């Protein structure tokens, strides 16, 4: 079986996390969410978690070297445990991170199969993040200024990553039912 490596891309609230869990199961991939890892580190009050918190609570990006270092370590660990395919969720978020991922994958003789780009309108994003904030317990999902900042940071720093991956990007409308969107993502992966 050919192993896949997928990046799921899109603004905050576009459904990356929800769809990643399903795609990981469908295609037997390890789901790596940098946001989830930081939240776990934070819950455990590790130095990495405390460092990340300063940025997360303001809606800012954690510095590239911190994120890349953490991801490199995680990849090594997973590969040593026998993982052969990944879905990266919330990473890369800058061009520098995308270049670093290219290098890491090259070292491991791995390739990106495709970049799935969930496209969702700004109003819908804000609505979804507020709704998630009611149950997620995430400080960055409840504060209006932080939500606005995260979307601005996405537009300024993260959206250029889609152009970087130009030939690998598959744009998918991320509005509609979770099942409908999953179907579209699945066929995009199967045709990649
Ligand atoms: P997320 O769960 O993907 O929305 O991430 C929550 C927060 O974690 C972001 O707003 C950033 O502060 C931080 N974060 C997660 N992934 C990254 C990344 N790849 N680069 C920089 N910061 C990140």
Q: What does this 3D model show about the protein?
A:
With about 190 residues, the chain is α/β, with parallel strands linked by helices. It has a single domain (about 5-180), classed as Rossmann fold (3-Layer(aba) Sandwich). It is about 55% helix and about 10% strand. It has a five-stranded parallel β-sheet with strand order 2-3-1-4-5. Helix 1 (about 15-25) packs across helix 9 (about 180-190), helix 2 (about 35-45) crosses helix 3 (about 45-55) and helix 4 runs parallel beside helix 5 (about 95-105). The model has no long low-confidence stretch (mean pLDDT about 95). Adenosine monophosphate binds near residues 56, 91 and 140. Adenosine monophosphate binds near residues 35 and 90.
Outline the fold blueprint.
Layout: E1 5-9, H1 16-27, E2 30-33, H2 34-43, H3 47-56, H4 64-80, E3 86-89, H5 95-107, E4 114-119, H6 122-136, H7 144-158, H8 160-164, E5 169-173, H9 178-190
Parallel strand pairs: 1-3, 1-4, 2-3, 4-5
Helix pairs in contact: 1-9, 2-3, 4-5
Bound molecules: adenosine monophosphate (AMP).
